[in-house]
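Moderator note: this is an archived Q&A kept for reference. The question asked for a predicted structure of one protein chain; the sequence and the answer are reproduced below.
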Amino acid sequence: MPFLRRMKRWRSLLSGLTALSLWLAACGEAAKEASVPPPPPLTPEQQKIARLQDEILAMMQPRGCATAKECKAAGLGYGGGCGPRQYVVYCPRNVDDALLQQRLDELTKLEEAEAKRQAEPPPCRAPSPPEAEVLDGVCRAKL
């Protein structure tokens, strides 16, 4: 009988130690995550760029086209002097193209000025315009 009691105590102790080690591991992970410094706050110029990009992306709705030929791809942002930093596929049916192009040009100029201000130009990437496809009435870049 004393042997069985000792075994029960060991099991109880072992399960308690396991729970404690799991808890400590979780606390350690939380401490690691908490120790990562937050990103620096955006400058007023970066905030303006972010707002303008959000506005542009809201204008570029991908829904509404029936065929891939109706979809368009527009260059977005400044890609280090080699063209846009990326392309976005959208359905132009409900978009004011002149206004969209004006906003795209404004974004490119703001990003280029910000890159010059930072004295660290983005790498020169020249992404190709993607081929569009329509899936369930939504324009998207063909993978």
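Archived answer notes: The longest strand covers residues 72-76.
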